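Researcher: I'm preparing a figure for a lab meeting and need a structural model of a single chain. I don't have an experimental structure, so a prediction will have to do for now. The sequence is pasted below. Please return the structure as tokens so I can convert it later.
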Amino acid sequence: KGTLIDGTQFDASEKVPMSVGQLVPGFNEALMLMTPGSKYEVYIPAELAYGTNPNPRIPVNSTLIFEIELLSVDK
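Model: Understood. Here is the structure written out token by token.
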């Protein structure tokens, strides 16, 4: 789940395969620290998220909060 600091939800993905490098830098950094089965709540500052780049669901310079559960890792 992804939310803004004010609680506005912008993402509610469930069991989605992801590749490191396809996501904002802060999310990639969090994934690299996780082990399968772990659950993290990650606060990603704007400079490691979308920063000043426009996104339809996320205002510029927004801190993002993600609840992440890493189910497995494929190498």
